[in-house]
Amino acid sequence: MKLFDSHCHLDDRIFKKDFDNVLQRAAEVGVEAVMVVGIDLDSSKKAVAMAKSKEGFYASTGVHPHDAKSCSEKRIKDLVELADDPNVRAWGEIGLDFNRMYSPKAIQEKWFIRQLETADSLELPVIFHERDSNGRLLEILKSYSNHKRRGVVHCFSGSRDELVEYLDMGLYIGITGILTIKKRGAYLRDIVKDIPVERLLIETDAPYLTPAPEKNRTRRNEPAFVRSVLLKLAETRKDDPEELAEKVWNNTCRLYGVDS
Predict the structure, then answer these.
(1) pLDDT digits (tens, 9 = 90+) for 9-68
(2) Cβ distance 91 to 125 under 8 Å?
(3) How far apart are CA 190 and CA 200, in angstroms?
(4) Mind listing the pLDDT tens digit for each residue in 85-112?
(5) Given phi > 0 = left and psi -120 to 50 = alpha, else beta, which region is 123?
């Protein structure tokens, strides 16, 4: 199977000690491409540097809602300049996170809207982060709608109604290792069957959200483990794994403008 980890944070320092081994394990299970996602200016720079030096690596730039309080017009300008690199294929991850509240709601919303407009002006697909916004992210997307906008709802964990609205907007749905967790993933396993196959992406969010069975032996997630997400997705939907892998690969390439 040819796999694309559509969302990971390989710039995290936790990978520094054995980075080459991480890449080797990913290659051994068929991971041929990864999207290294920026969450602030520093991580975006690192993501771009990785994408420029590694075949099959792509990068995104953006400011995560946790870091919205440190955002500014100067920061946006710097990220726009960074996004001029051809290895940058998305803007994000951006959005709203009203769970941990590392940045005030009003500040999160201000810079989410500003970045949404920026991504649209650059014609880059958007990687969305949403947690406990109680429909506010959807409200903003409706208020600032753009029929040309492409994007993915990273680590989807919302309701069935929210899923329908995202799909109606033409967005892709990112599925993580949560799908493989017995209790936590039960609801996701139920509604994932309703997602059209042409809208599915798989991701690790490495080093976070380690799937089963790998989580039984390590806390750190890595791109190789995206295979477990794909296999559980195929099992849940009763799809052939090889066929599903090919469709998801094509979906990811289509979203990020990669030659499949």
Answers:
(1) 999 999 999 999 999 999 999 999 999 999 999 999 999 999 999 999 999 999 999 999
(2) yes
(3) 15
(4) 999 999 999 999 999 999 999 999 999 9
(5) left
Residues near 122 by beta carbon (within 8 Å), at least 6 away in sequence: 80, 83, 91
Options 3.40.50.720, 3.40.190.10, 3.30.200.20, 3.20.20.140; CATH for 3-256 is 3.20.20.140
Q: What is the DSSP secondary-structure string of the chain? A: --EEEEEE-TTSGGGGGGHHHHHHHHHHTTEEEEEEPPSSHHHHHHHHHHHHHSTTEEEEE---GGGGGG--HHHHHHHHHHTTSTTEEEEEEEEEETTT-SS-HHHHHHHHHHHHHHHHHHT--EEEEEES-TTHHHHHHHHT--TT--EEETT----HHHHHHHHHTT-EEEE-GGGGSTTTTHHHHHHGGGS-GGGEEE---TTSSPPTTGGGT-S---GGGHHHHHHHHHHHHT--HHHHHHHHHHHHHHHHT---
How would you class 257 by CB atoms within 10 Å of its CB: exposed for 0-12, middle for 13-18, buried for 19 or more? middle
Q: What is the pTM of this model?
A: 0.97
Q: Alpha-carbon distance 30 to 74, whole Å?
A: 40
